[in-house]
Amino acid sequence: MNAIKRAVVLTAIPLVLAGCVSSAEYARKEAGFSTVSAKVGGATAKQTVWVQNQQQAQATSAHVKTILSRSKVLDADTAVQVSLINNKGLQAAYADLGDSAADAWQSTMLLNPTVSIGFSGIGAPELEAFRTIEGAITTNLLALMTRKRDIEIADTRFRQAQLNAAVRTLQLAAETRRAWINAVAAWENVGQLQRAQAAADAASELAEKLGETGAMTKGGQAREHVFVAELAGETAKARLTARLAKEELTRLMGLWGTDVDFQVPNSLPALPRSLAKRDAIEAEALRNRIDLQVARLELEATARSYGLTEATRYVTDLEVLAGFEAEREVEEDGKKKWETTAAGELEFAIPIFDTGKARMRKAELGYMRAANQLAEKAVNVRSEARSAYEAYRANYDIARHYRNNVVPLRTKVEEESLLTYNGMITNTFELLTDTRDKINSILLSVNAKRDFWLADANLAPAVYGGGSSAAAAETEVASASESGGGAH
Q: Least CB-packed of 50, 191, 320, 368 within 10 Å?
């Protein structure tokens, strides 16, 4: 069967020439995750894990319970840490990274040759076996010729998948931090409305007693009673908002309903003494934004695909066929012998009708699309960084204004009203009105402080990625429809 050996050697020549690319990195179960972990750690100073088996899942669950048991009052950093290791949607995003690694691993493997063998001559008693054996070994030469570019494209897509996983992780971290801020601010509003409710209840009770003595008209009594009723509705609505905000935080942290054994603080942290200086935030964003790096890799992958299309413009399929035929014959003296022949064929498509111009045009358009998307992303990144810092500065000034000016003035008005009340200059209802106005100012101050901390939470996504312009815009106008709310 020397012909078979020669056929195999002939077919194996392009396989050897194609070389061998190491696939150890792609074959690892956590392929590329170290890059994701490093980028996330640099941006958030938090740890993330990729859970791939039951043992890891059990260890992660135990770790989450340990974190939650350390403190019943959950701070923002702890909430972010829990979400990064326990959110199942994030684990699904990491599976996409594994898919990309498998694709890159597959691209490093040589195509299997196709082997076919046929028999004929069954039923010739004088030969006692097959009379003729035919075989062929086929491999795709074009795939071998373009293999290097295919591997480069797959590697670029793999690096893209790494960055996309990092962006998804940063996005979850930002969403969790914002959810924590909203939950804490909502419960702080509930506390302030409950204080207003106590003052309103006192006014309503006093009005009822004055009405019994005839010192207050029924209209005046009704005004105090309806204020209590409206305030009770607002308090119930605020309490519902706070519960739903906590549920959103619970979902982002990946906790079951039975695991919700934590509390958030009753108030947001105080404003910092000074603002962080970020004069070069645009340069920081251009240097660190991961989604911008993804867009660059998209342009790189498109350019490589364009080169591959150009290389295969005229020849879309090229196969080499190495075949052999062995026939057994009987000589006159009764001895049997085999006569073998070998042959080779080259098969390819002739570009008579399809010269590849349409595919080249499509590849050119794809490249220009990727280039324009990268340019647009760079413009948007700079704008988002400027907007985030502007919102950060402005909301700090607004919150500080309420803290340093509005609330102290309202407190002064209330104190003066109390003095005049004690001197019997003003009546009880004027005092209660001033108290309600002070509570309204405190509610506005709480909302302003919330808006600042939301703007602060949006700074990191503006620099590293994982945020959205919609979230930034929402922060900038968050108080537009709510700041006027509260006790009236």
A: 368
Residue 333: Cβ within 10 Å count: 5
| Residue 275 main-chain phi, psi, to 5 deg | -85, 150
In angstroms, the CA 59 to CA 63 distance is 6
Number of neighbours of residue 51 by Cβ within 10 angstroms = 18
Other CB atoms within a 10 A radius of the CB of residue 373 amount to 14
Query: Angle 357-401/281-288 helices, nearest 10 degrees?
Result: 140
Torsion of CA 80, 86, 92, 98, to 10 degrees: 90
Query: How far, in Å, CA of 172 to CA of 259, rounded?
Result: 20
- Whole-angstrom distance, CA of residue 151 vs CA of residue 153: 5
Could you report the average pLDDT of every consecutive run of 10 residues in the chain (488 residues)?
A: 43 41 67 88 90 90 88 90 94 88 80 65 51 57 68 85 92 95 94 79 66 66 70 88 93 79 89 87 90 87 68 48 52 57 55 64 81 89 93 95 90 70 55 72 92 95 77 43 41
Q: Which of 262, 255, 268, 252 is nearest to 70 (CA)?
A: 262
Find out whether 153 and 301 touch, Cβ atoms under 8 Å: yes
What the block records as the tokens of 197 is 């409710």
